[in-house]
Amino acid sequence: MAEKTHQKRSDDYSTRIRITVSALAVIYVMAFLSGFLQDTKYNFFNYIFFSLLFIGGIGLMIGTVKSTQSSTTRGFLFLRGISTTLLLIFGIGYERFRLGGHHDLEASVEGLLYWLTLLFWVGVIGSLILIRRQP
What is the pTM of this model? Predict the structure, then answer.
């Protein structure tokens, strides 16, 4: 009886992690699309979406520590959480340099944001493939 309860809890937790990863991927796509509103009065959507990604990334890192997944899966989940939190930090730096007219620094930070985006999607794809239900 106790094993069934533990197995059900593990399955629920794996499902919750999978939903969190998927939801953060959708939020990232929305953040990317809101980037086209950068020089408009609707630029605040960027800040909202990147803040949601930051909060979700912190939550995902906390959930990864408590996870019963394999070490490879936990590595992908942690990579995903770290890249999500760094997106907000470098996104703020990008906006500061863009608005301050420092175009060289803006271009450098934008390059870092592209690398973080690559890490983000590697983490999403890897964790969605490797998240498993406990047998």
Answer: 0.78
